[in-house]
Design brief:
Blueprint (H helix, E strand, L loop, with lengths): L41 H12 L8 H12 L4 H11 L3 H8 L13 E6 L2 H4 L3 H15 L4 E6 L11 E3 L2 E3 L7 H10 L31
Parallel strand pairs: 1-2
Antiparallel strand pairs: 1-3, 3-4
Helix pairs in contact: 1-2, 1-3, 2-3, 6-7
């Protein structure tokens, strides 16, 4: 969904993309598209093939492959599903059965940027709802568009609570006062809250302490 979303991700259709109209019932979603018949951007094809090479079973790369296609197209359109299916040699129906399960994979148009605020138990007890509301308010006041802002059930980073994922960057712990900076960073295309990201070498865990040691590069 484009723009702001105050709701937790809505239920997605359980049908394969491109097979959701009565007229489509004559098509066979169980057919694997042939790579020779599908135009796949070279960079997308290369990334999917690389991801597939990392696993004994190439189908294990399906989520990274769908994520790559979503980055390329903005969402998992019928065309995107066909491209991934052709490269991975699976059916579009198989891909849709996976994409429809994960909130971060969109089979409908969505904003090019996203802010997912974790509101699961640990974050909820740390005032995550107030953080979410503050981000929505700051986005509305500044007229921020093309951004999907939503509550997320769990992002798996309880040690950073309350936290959020901003275009894939995990940041936390957060306070409602951080909202204007987060919105400004999204608008300007930069990383929000330097030093507060999970991947930052100087990230300070809750309660203080030393930042995590940096590994030395192999000689």
């Amino acid at each position: 969904m484009v723009g702001l979303d105050r709701q937790i991700a809505s239920t997605k259709p359980s049908v394969a993309a491109g097979w959701d109209l009565p007229a489509d019932l004559d098509k066979d979603p169980a057919v694997i598209p042939q790579l020779a018949d599908v135009r796949v951007p070279p960079e997308l094809k290369a990334e999917i093939e690389y991801r597939m090479s990392l696993y004994p079973d190439p189908r294990s790369a399906v989520i990274p492959a769908l994520w790559a296609a979503q980055r390329q197209h903005g969402y998992l359109s019928t065309e995107a599903m066909q491209q991934v299916a052709a490269v991975m040699k699976v059916t579009p129906a198989y891909l849709s059965s996976i994409a429809s399960f994960y909130d971060m994979l969109n089979e409908e148009p969505a904003g090019h940027h996203y802010v997912f605020v974790c509101t699961s138990v640990s974050c909820h007890l740390s005032n995550a709802k107030a953080v979410f509301d503050a981000i929505v308010e700051a986005a509305e006041e500044s007229g921020l568009g093309d951004t999907d802002i939503r509550e997320f059930e769990c992002l798996g980073a309880c040690d950073m609570q309350p936290m959020a994922s901003v275009d894939g960057r995990y940041i936390g712990p957060l306070d409602p006062s951080d909202a204007p900076e987060i919105v400004a960073a999204v608008r300007e295309g930069r990383k929000p809250l330097p030093g507060r990201g999970l991947e930052d070498s100087d990230h300070m865990p809750p309660g203080g302490g030393d930042p995590p040691p940096q590994e030395e590069a192999p000689q």
